[in-house]
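Quick one from the shared queue. A colleague (R.T.) flagged GMP synthase [glutamine-hydrolyzing] as missing a structural entry in our internal table.

Convert sequence to structure tokens.
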Amino acid sequence: MSETLDAAPPHATFDTVLVLDLGSQTSHLILRRLRSIGVYSEMLPCTQKLKDLSWKPVGIILSGGPSSVYSPDAPNVDPLVFELGVPVLGVCYGCQLIAWRVNPNNVAPGVAREYGETSMAIRKVGNHADRLFEGLGDSLNVVMSHFDKLVDLPNGFKTIATTKNSEFAGIAHESQPVFGIQFHPEISHTERGTDIIANFALKICGARADWKMDNFSEREIVRIRKLVGDKAQVIGAVSGGVDSTVAAKLLTEAIGDRFKSILVDTGLMRLNECEQVKETLDKHLGINLTVVDGSNLFFSRLAGVTEPEAKRKIIGETFIDLFEIEALRIEKEAENTSFAGKVEWFLQGTLYADIVESLSFKGAASSTIKSHHNAGGLPARMQNGEAHLKLLEPLRELFKDEVRAFGRQLQIHEELIGRHPFPGPGLGIRIIGEVTRERVEIVRKADHIFISMIREAGIYDEVTQAYAALDTNRAVGVQGDARAYGYICVLRAVTSLDMMSAEPYEFEWSLLKAISRRIVNEVDGIARVVYDTTSKPPGTIELE
């Protein structure tokens, strides 16, 4: 272990491109494109005051967004963005914002909405502005998604790209490294979109492409040891999913037996989940998992609750209550032993996707997406540091695919790395309506049939996440020549790289019908099965 490794967060170690989120549903894809080329990136809400940052980005990207720059409540950015002296790239709304700041009359409603793919001509101007499209030819097919448009070229700027409906599809300042584009390079259907982002990050910002998982373990172990100290103990929520498993393995490497792994049986787990997770972690990682039965407490607190956000908050609060009790028990048992020390830290496998989805672009807890159990779903006392336990989240800068790569670096068995994600609130957010023991048992059986048949068909690894959910509205059916009136089972299966966007898995029709037939025939209480074909966005992967 190198003792010279800095224990600072990644943005203090790596050249970092900052993405300021102005409300686009695809802002996170800008981060993914940057990290895919080896450039570390972070996203913050557009309200972020740059003077409050302890670090300086090498470049800033202003995302797209659904607003109009001339609306009274239009989102804006800190003026310091344009005074830091670092390159700035505005995407769609971000481009309009740059032009509007020069002169509000530069932006107006367009005559025709420009949405979808269109051909864009690249215009060479013979100075630094050409670097954004360097090596990309004379034209590209790009994805537009805007109605407002630039109607005048901002003073001091040159036109570097045009389309049929956008005379100023790309602009660049004559002397400063400030660029604006009216299309979305982060969307996969934009031709050479990643190359455009790479030109900005590598050639214009001069960022080093050195972000990779190779030394993440060493760096995090140093940071954890400095943060936790020599005596404090850590307890961790370990569910057997890839996120918590990787986090648990990392903590074990860092502090050994001072880390205690705990699985809370909420009563909302999948069929035989607790027993299987305990056996698998012991077999492949040598982790001695303590299982705590909290099912009675969870069901009592969830009684009568139907609103998804309320369910998530209750589950998050109950988790922390139980872990604080466990912390006191562990401290008591450790008295007068070599492990004596306060349990000060609570480990969670929070990922960057959890953080992004739990914040709106205005920086507050989002009401338009949802609170994640690992982020916004935690009780306020945990988030503001007033709880008995302090949060430890070593994976919070990583996306799902990066966590899997990190897990392989830690030599975690593929059975654990490839396991489908399972949400912290469990089946509680896969039941639309009130959570009861009867409904949990119904959806548990349906889910077991669904996943078993996916495995038998040999396609489990092709699907990123799959599950059965229960719509507690009822539908009429015919079973055994008699009228049936039962719940609706919703099947969901998606493919995704980073869980920030996803597409429905395209089953063979015969397999989907066979799954449906088995569930209706074998699970009492279900009268109908439907398959959810919604992409993310606009949907989310979980129903609640």
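The chain has three domains: 14-204, 213-417, 436-531.
Residues 213-417 form a domain with the Rossmann fold fold (CATH 3.40.50.620).
Added to the table.
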